[in-house]
Specification:
The complex is a heterodimer. Chain A is mainly alpha-helical. Chain A has 15 helices and 2 strands. In chain B, strands 4, 6, 7, 9, 10 and 11 form a 6-stranded mixed β-sheet that branches. In chain B, strands 3-2-1-5-8 form a 5-stranded mixed β-sheet, with no helix packed on it. In chain B, strands 12-13 form a two-stranded antiparallel sheet. The chains are: A mainly alpha, B alpha+beta.
Chain lengths: 600, 438
């Protein structure tokens, strides 16, 4: 384990050469405007990212409270929780798991990485002042808040008990606030679409001189693929939810068999969005992991083009596999076979990424700091999540596992184990850049250990409960499954403790953390070429595109606890990129070629 | 504090484990003399241990002791991964499962080991060291793209072949219609008899046709590895054939109401059913009672199945009260309790019959045959105070079931003053005399 570096506290922020910032440059995006309106009406992508952070973490807390409640209800068979919301405990459980799912999916996982990390980092990675459409960006934040307001209304007005999937005809007959919840998801969809449009336009239009498509950081490829899904799939959800509302309020009969409709049609519509939505969640996580893996291994990413194209491949395949959610619904054997085969294909680009990450860390110089621990944890959990997906893609085994805890465990390994891990890793990784302060490394690692153990205890045993036949969404269960549920609930408590530990570590870092250097990790993508936190307009010079995975020209500076540019040439602020192939023929460990600063 | 809570939980767990589980099984045996084969699923066996459960569970858990063991147990056997397989094609499913499992384990061990090994071996020692090496290798990339591809193709092919077997019923299968509603099941046999549990003959292909009365449900029998959604407007079909397993089979002697005298079959021998029991779950979320929509599958020997059918098809084979209880279990119990709770969202039948204080939204009413009959055939006509219109759909019950239901409701009410028909002979008084046609 590498030594935890605790350099002397630095009182002044430094630039990328390790020099203290001149007083006139002390102003950063956090201080470049004061008062409520300077935040509420800001067009600054960084401030919007920070506001998303608060809102999305608040939603995560809310969804997490429901998670703890539902696991507590399942601690023992029969009623465990006192009645809090409703008259009957099974209704109460149904509301809790529905709100857990809906809040987590719509308010937390979908916006988490794109809206927080994407918003903050994407323009910086592009060396741009802001996203392509700053006003649209602010509007997407308000759409998110508006959608969130609907969910708050749902909480206050009779709850929701349809499951986050809103399956008809149950959702058209139950007397909970389905209409408000679907409208909320509808509005949140716009937030997602606007973010996608913005990112796609930014990547097309704002790349700096020298940044070709294949010189982009892989996070941008991932966000690009995500944006494509957001733009193409989310409108389908919007239409579906409108149809559902119409069905519920005026009985148009598209999904009601009594009026000539078909409930399975709803499932097709819903999963046509919601399966790609799974990749809206996971693709940015894959991108974040690629960044951290290469940067903290201090080694060029392996198989850049394969990773980049696998993101696009996943985005493409995500649109043609939705039917695997309906193997038991009565769709024809031909469709089932087709969707089973297509689903298998998704495994290949996912596997390519994992193998490339392994090849990247091989013979690297791996800095086992908190972001890297989360990235490595991500690979571990994503591998389990991905491999268990094979059981669900295969037809006859899926018939057995469909709608059991096996599925619950599988998608939590992917949605929580993978997405949340990448989100936490990304937050730790960019935390110094976002807030200009360092978190406490030791506590970060401890919190990782607790969350990792807690997560695996919670969800690993659910695979066995499910494969032995425990159906999902059950308020009660036969004693046969008692130990799986009991252990899982204990794991939830451990995970919860770990997550609050992380929150404490972040808040502690914000208040007491030492001032962050411009580049604590020695990364080379453009966001590390500006002080932490960045100035209001991101860069004091016009950055040039660089190969984001070449680390040779950064030197560790003990006095500031970060990396600085080796050859300090104040006359020039851009860094010319170096052909990565240049290194290919060198034996490992040979003296690195020194990049030539441009203009020298 | 945490330790105290853990101790509390564990003590609660053990007390449920000892008092909630075992006595329930014992109570089932004690209740077995009841003349119906599905007494194993009778809920009253479950209320006893709950009453005996100590307060160790603490405030929250003790709030509703009557709810413990809502779902009775079946020994599902098997290993850590899968329950014991009990249908002809489920071994195929298991085989594909173990194939994927081993592929997954091999891949996971390789990836996980490399991950940990590399992370440790190549950990950072010099902050300034920048690692160099190959950063692309097309041959390697293509290799690790195509090799898993071959394995994936194998999984697909074997999974699809198994699936075709599961979805192609033989022509001569015995047809059963599974009707699902919120929140129970009825399994209709070709002769018109419907039972709350699925009774089928062993070593016979069974064709299940799913029918939903309201929302989407799903029929799942884990030990057969089958699952099929019950979608309104569709008639989804599935099938299975379950071999008779003599090792796990149960012999169930049917008793008269006294609990001692065996019921005799036509040949004068004691009537004994012989079957394997499996769990049946609803796996598509369907609302409040979703978790309680569990039934049993009884796979009889053919001989036992015929005896069971002959016995069950005639409700007068059991005393009216028991027949009524069976009707209640099958058709009413998911909403109407008989223990005073109203968690099913409907008035409890405990102490309902002849209750002088029973209030409708319009005022008090006498609870008698007429009121109950009206409440079944036209439930929205008279609404109990505190409830709303539309909570229940109209039902049509045969006369014999209605009569049995009245007797059962009398038996759970302390206000009842009528004699209760507790013996089979009482049917003669209750049913209109059969008119001999010339």
């Amino acid at each position: 384990m590498s030594v935890i570096n605790t350099p002397p506290p630095v009182t002044n922020p430094t630039d990328i050469y390790g020099q203290p910032l001149s007083p006139e440059k002390h102003d950063n995006y956090l201080t470049a405007g004061k008062g409520f309106l300077s935040w509420a009406l800001t067009l600054d992508h960084k401030r919007i990212g920070v506001m998303y952070t608060i809102g999305v973490l608040g939603s995560f807390l809310l969804g997490g409270i429901f998670a703890v409640l539902l696991r507590t209800e399942l601690l023992l068979p029969g009623q465990t929780l006192p009645l809090l919301f409703t008259d009957t405990w099974t209704d109460q459980y149904n509301q809790i798991f529905t709100l857990h799912g809906a809040v987590m999916v719509f308010l937390f996982i979908i916006p988490a990485i794109p809206a927080i990390i994407g918003n903050f980092v994407l323009p910086l990675m592009l060396g741009a002042k802001d996203v392509a459409f700053p006003r649209l960006n602010l509007m997407s934040l308000y759409c998110w808040l508006g959608g969130g307001a609907f969910f708050v209304y749902v909480l206050a007005s009779g709850g929701l008990d349809t499951g986050w999937t809103f399956y008809t005809p149950y959702s058209t007959t139950t007397n909970t606030s389905v209409a408000a919840a679907t409208l909320g998801a509808f509005v949140l969809g716009f937030s997602s679409i606007l973010t996608g449009v913005n990112f796609m336009a930014s990547i097309h239009m704002l790349r700096p001189k020298g940044m070709t498509w294949f010189k982009m950081p892989l996070l941008l490829w991932a966000l690009y693929a995500t944006a494509a899904i957001q733009i193409l799939a989310t409108p389908v959800l919007a239409i579906t939810l409108l149809l559902l509302t119409a069905e519920r309020l005026i009985g148009v009969g598209i999904f009601d068999p009594n009026l000539g409709g078909d409930p399975v049609l709803y499932q097709h519509f819903f999963w046509f969005y919601s399966h790609p939505a799974v990749y809206i969640m996971i693709l940015p996580a894959l991108g974040v992991t690629s960044e951290i893996i290469s940067s903290l291994s201090r080694k060029h990413i392996f198989g850049y083009k394969f990773i980049a194209f696998s993101s696009l491949a996943i985005a493409f395949f995500s649109f043609i596999v939705w039917g695997h959610h309906m193997f038991t619904s009565g769709q024809s054997a031909f469709f089932n076979a087709l969707f089973s085969l297509l689903t298998m294909t998704v495994a290949i680009p996912s596997a390519i990424k994992v193998f490339n990450w392994l090849a990247t860390i091989r013979k690297g110089s791996i800095r086992l700091d908190t972001p890297m621990l989360y990235a490595l944890g991500f690979i571990w959990l994503f591998t389990i999540g991905g491999l268990t997906g094979l059981f669900l893609a295969t037809l006859n085994t899926d018939i057995h596992f469909h709608d059991t805890y096996f599925v619950v465990a599988h998608f939590h390994y992917v949605m929580v184990g993978s997405v949340l891990w990448a989100f936490l890793g990304g937050m730790y990784y960019w935390f110094p850049k976002m807030f200009g302060r360092m978190y406490n490394e030791w506590h970060g690692r401890m919190a990782f250990a607790i969350t990792f153990i807690g997560f695996n205890i919670t969800f690993f045993f659910q695979f066995f409960a499910g494969s032995r036949g425990m159906p999902r969404r059950y308020a009660d269960y036969p004693d046969e499954y008692l130990w799986y549920h009991f252990v899982s609930t204990i794991g939830t408590y451990i995970l919860t403790i770990g997550l609050f530990y992380i929150l404490w570590n972040w808040v502690d870092g914000l208040i007491r953390g030492r001032k962050a250097p411009a580049n604590p990790w020695g990364s080379n993508s453009l966001e590390w070429h500006t002080p932490s936190p960045p100035p209001h307009h991101n860069f004091d010079y016009e950055p040039h595109g660089v190969d984001p995975y070449l680390y040779d020209h950064w030197r560790w500076d003990e006095s500031i606890g970060g990396y600085v540019i080796k050859d300090h040439d104040p006359a020039h602020d851009g860094i010319e990129d170096v052909d990565p192939d240049h290194y290919d023929d060198e034996p490992p460990g040979s003296a690195p070629a020194k990049p030539v600063p441009a203009g020298a | 504090m945490t330790r105290l809570t853990a101790l509390l939980l564990i003590s609660a767990l053990t007390s449920f484990g000892l008092l909630g589980v075992t006595p329930a099984a014992l109570a089932e045996d004690a209740a077995a003399p009841a003349t119906q084969p599905d007494a194993a699923a009778a809920p009253e066996g479950s209320t006893e241990p709950a009453a005996a459960a100590p307060e160790a569970a603490g405030g929250g858990e003790a709030a509703a002791p009557a709810e413990i063991d809502l779902i009775p147990d079946t020994d599902i056997g098997g290993n850590a991964f899968l329950p014991a397989s009990a249908a002809t094609y489920s071994d195929d499913v298991d085989w594909v499962f173990y194939f994927i499992l081993w592929v997954s384990i091999v891949f996971f061990v390789i990836i996980g080991w490399l991950l940990v090994y590399y992370a440790w071996k190549y950990r950072q020692r010099d902050m300034n060291y920048v690692a160099h090496g190959h950063n692309h290798n097309t041959v390697l990339e293509l290799t690790w793209s195509t090799l898993p591809g071959i394995l994936l193709l194998l999984m697909f092919i074997w999974g699809f072949r198994g699936y075709l077997d599961m979805s192609t019923p033989p022509k001569d299968a015995y047809p059963v219609t599974a009707v699902a509603w919120q929140w129970s099941w009825a399994f209709e046999h070709p002769n018109g008899y419907a039972d709350g549990d699925l009774h089928v003959p062993a070593d016979t292909p069974i064709l299940i046709t799913n029918v939903s009365n309201d929302v989407t449900h799903s029929l799942y029998i884990p030990q057969f590895r089958i699952k099929k959604d019950v979608v309104p407007g569709r008639f989804n079909q599935t099938w299975f054939e379950s071999p008779f397993n003599a090792e796990t089979a149960v012999d169930f002697p049917v008793m008269e109401e006294d609990g001692v005298t065996p019921v005799l079959d036509e040949d004068g021998n004691p009537l004994v059913f012989s079957y394997n029991v499996y769990d049946l779950f609803c796996t598509e979320y369907c609302g409040r009672g979703h978790a309680l929509m569990n039934k049993k599958v009884y796979v009889h020997t053919r001989e036992s199945f015929e005896k069971w059918m002959a016995f069950s098809i005639d409700p007068t084979n059991v005393p009216p009260v028991q027949a009524g209880e069976k009707v209640w279990q099958q058709k009413c119990a998911s909403c109407h309790s008989v223990d005073g709770t109203t968690e099913g969202g409907a008035p409890s039948w405990k102490d309902l019959w002849n209750n002088p204080n029973h209030m409708l939204t319009t005022g008090p009413i006498q609870v008698d045959e007429e009121y109950i009959y009206n409440s079944i055939v036209n439930p929205n006509l008279q609404i109990v105070a505190g409830y709303q219109v539309g909570g229940m759909a109209p039902w049509v019950l045969p006369d014999v079931e209605l009569i049995a239901l009245y007797e059962f409701m009398k038996s759970v009410s302390k206000y009842n003053t009528d004699p209760i028909a507790r013996t089979k002979d009482d049917w003669k008084k209750l049913l209109p005399p059969v008119e001999e046609t010339e």
